[in-house]
Known about the structure:
By secondary structure, the protein is an alpha+beta fold. The protein contains 9 helices and 9 strands.
Amino acid sequence: MIVDKIYQFLEDETDFGNDEILDYFLTEVSHGFKRQFMEEKQIKATLRLSSIGKCMTQQWLNAKGYTPEPFSPRTLITFWQGDLIEACTLSLAKMAGVDIRREQEEVDILGVKGHIDGVLYENDKPVAVVEIKSMADFSFKRFSKEGIDNTFGYESQGIAYATSLGLDKVIWVATNKNTGHMDEYVHTITDEMKTELIDRSREILTFDYEDTRPPREYTPDKKGKLPLQCQYCNQKWNCYEEEGLETVINKGKPSFYVKQEDAEEVV
């Protein structure tokens, strides 16, 4: 739908001259660089539609004002890579004749705001939300086989955007950061999905005045290793403040474990 048109465009002998799209690309790259590296990061986490599918415990900790873990240099560069790939993908799609509009438009559900990557139009009518993702090799291979999942709340993010705009499709366009391959997945959003998303949003919004912390949605394995969702959570240290966490470095990559008096040696 989108990827095929981009590939076909790049394979054809086509006039690539389009200053308007070039200006769009340079502006988006500039904004992304400024946002990631030249602006002060807010300390308090705020609820966004992009995070609506993340763990309820994380949402509660954010609502209660627990200070999230600051972004590491590696994380900031990863975000920048995502911004760059998004700008490149949207620009190539436009050059290939794909009608994508409303880039970075602000949307909301129950006052919770977010920004969409764009909306696909056909015959001058909106048909689907467009979301761009950059992925490492493992995640990309899984995406190509199974489509989008909710490991990091992406599925809920797409449902939220579609719900806010009254659409029933989300087109996820992914690029493999390791190889440059692209793929896409069309996710059809049902009324049941929309209702569940709105109910979840309402529950999260009660956390501002709810003192009882919700149970964790993800739990460590037998050795105390946090699952993938928690490894990248910026509230993991607050979440496990009582039990305590320890960091284990393996091949230069940190992993986080719950401290256990009788735990087996971590190798």
